Amino acid sequence: xxxxxxxxxxxxxxxxxxxxxxxxxxxxxxxxxxxxxxxxxxxxxxxxxxxxxxxxxxxxxxxxxxxxxxxxxxxxxxxxxxxxxxxxxxxxxxxxxxxxxxxxxxxxxxxxxxxxxxxxxxxxxxxxxxxxxxxxxxxxxx
Length: 142
Known about the structure:
single chain, alpha+beta, three-stranded antiparallel β-sheet
């Protein structure tokens, strides 16, 4: 029994160094993967947030522009308010057809809102560069 303990103690000192080297190697392999995973998740969360923001702003614009007596300027103002509150600064808004107070009831109005995904990209990894988020909402003028 005594011989076994001595052998284990001798192996233990050398094994401790081997385990330390293995842990360093595991960290060197796993750390970059974890960093990519974390920043990728943040980037995707920002993309989902942007998509929801664009959808909400397009819906709000369609809701306003289809009301009786309302016009395109009020809808554009509402889109600006919603997107400014959500820190989206660059976007493109279009209405089809152009709506004025004289637009007939029952006319289908299409609101198209687009924003580049780089609006909410903050991390060192930018997976959404060059992508555009678009929302299209159709409503009938009341």
